[in-house]
Design goal:
heterodimer; A: 110 residues; mainly beta; six-stranded mixed beta sheet; three-stranded antiparallel beta sheet; 45% strand; B: 121 residues; seven-stranded mixed beta sheet; four-stranded antiparallel beta sheet; 0% helix
């Protein structure tokens, strides 16, 4: 069982906007920034959003992030087939004194 | 572009020691402050194991601290994980990752692709 909670699956059609949520508590998301990673099976995870809403260089502006209280959301607009992957959230936890992760959401592009 | 590559035995016997190395290429291990190990047991979420500063200082997940040693070898541009007294519960895909920072917030901006380690006799 993961420290941060994510729905196991999400889906959308090409061109659609989808959102993936992540929830925690006051010792993690409530007090620290969220990061989002994209993982295609067999490849290295890739950072797509850091510090709640910052896109690393090379990540399309179709990806955006937000955080409010103990919840965070990753939004992907103009969905493309290449976006099909697992997405997981992560943040610092003041109790663990280290990063904690969500269980991941498998995004399917229909 | 920096790349990380995990290596080590894919099978470890129960009560033995799991040993993995992460080779850093495309940049120096001294270019980033912290280097981490993360794992994902089958069917479960990711778990942070611990981190090492390029100067040698370490921090560990309290749940694993008594069994973990993470070390760095600057001359070889790599860092390593040793996990002792392993059980089947330590079966997982193990990732190494590099820390990035932005205005005081940290994240992992480079990951290895992971290596499966199975604990079995």
């Amino acid at each position: 069982q993961s420290v941060l909670t994510q729905r196991p699956s999400a889906s959308g059609t090409p061109g659609q906007r989808v959102t993936i949520s992540c929830s925690g508590n006051n010792s993690n998301l409530g007090n620290n920034a969220v990061n989002w990673y994209q993982e295609v099976p067999g490849t290295a995870p890739k950072l797509v959003i850091h510090s709640n809403n910052q896109r690393p260089s090379g990540v399309p502006d179709r990806f955006s992030g937000s955080k409010s209280g103990t919840s965070a959301t990753l939004a992907i607009s103009g969905l493309q087939s290449e976006d099909e992957a697992d997405y997981f959230c992560a943040t610092w936890d003041d109790s663990v004194k280290g990063p904690v992760f969500g269980g991941g959401t498998k995004l399917t592009v229909l | 572009q920096m790349q990380l590559q995990e290596s080590g035995p894919g099978l470890v016997k129960p009560s033995g020691t799991l040993s993995l190395t992460c080779a850093v290429s495309g940049g120096s291990i001294t270019s980033s402050n912290w280097w981490s190990w993360v794992r994902r047991p089958p069917g479960k979420g990711l778990e942070w194991i611990g981190e090492v500063y390029h100067g040698g200082t370490t921090n560990y997940n309290p749940s694993l601290e008594s069994r973990v040693i993470i070390s760095v070898d600057r001359s070889k541009n790599q860092f390593s994980l040793n996990l002792t007294s392993v059980t089947a519960a330590d079966t997982a895909v193990y990732y190494c990752a590099k820390e990035g920072r932005h205005l005081g917030e940290s994240f992992f901006d480079c990951w290895g692709q992971g290596t499966l380690v199975t604990v079995s006799s």
